[in-house]
Amino acid sequence: MTLSEIATVSGKGGLFRIVSPTKSGVILESLDEQKTKLVATTSHRLSLLHEISIYTTTKEGTVPLEAILRKIHSEYGADTGVDANADPSELKAFIKSVLPEYDETRVYVSDIKKLVRWYAVLLKYVPAIFEEKKEEAVKSTEAEPEVAIAEEEKEVKAEKKPKAEKKEGTKTSKKQSEK
Predict the structure, then answer these.
(1) CA-CA distance, 68 to 58, in Å (whole number)?
(2) Would you give the end-to-end CA distance of the chain in angstroms?
(3) Domain count, the chain
(4) What is the spatial distance between Cα 175 and Cα 179, in angstroms, rounded to a whole number?
(5) Which of 73, 86, 90, 102 is the most exposed place for a label (fewest CB within 10 A)?
């Protein structure tokens, strides 16, 4: 499972796994013990986690949620030291340790609380999200030399092929061929 398969619905607590699309929306299943199902229609505000980012003061302006979650996982593992009910100053210190360049004016304490809650839920119910990138990184570094060799071979073959020259006067129209 990836972050593109996990969504949040405005007004509903928690995270949801996308089960399947319907004619008027999608079927969602909560990522908790209850496994409640919900049909999200166009009237619901649905956000996929891979589309969410956090504002920063850098030139780019934002950092994807996935990068922040991975950084939290690499630095803190299973124990972040804070929970969603922590003091606002503790939550701000936590996000500052993970993302020092976050925009303090546009990232609210409620956003940090969501981040902490989401991280706990993902770690508990979908820990494979944090492990997939490691496997993909190993596979991509192994595959890179082969791709480079294949591209070089294409370039060499393209250089060897002579370009076809157009011959003038070989085209005949239908009317000429019928005469």
Answers:
(1) 15
(2) 68
(3) 2
(4) 7
(5) 90
Same domain for 101 and 59, yes or no, is: yes
Cα dihedral sign, 88-94-97-98: negative
Report the distance separating Cα 101 and Cα 95, nearest Å.
9
8 Å CB contact between 5 and 18? yes
Nearest-angstrom CA–CA distance, 53 and 67: 9
- Which positions ≥6 away from 18 have C-beta within 8 Å? 5, 6, 7, 26, 27, 28, 48
Which residues constitute the domain of residue 94?
53-128
Residues of the chain with pLDDT under 50: 137-141, 143-154, 156-161, 165-166, 169-170, 173-175, 177, 179
**Report field, pTM of the whole predicted structure over 0.90:** no
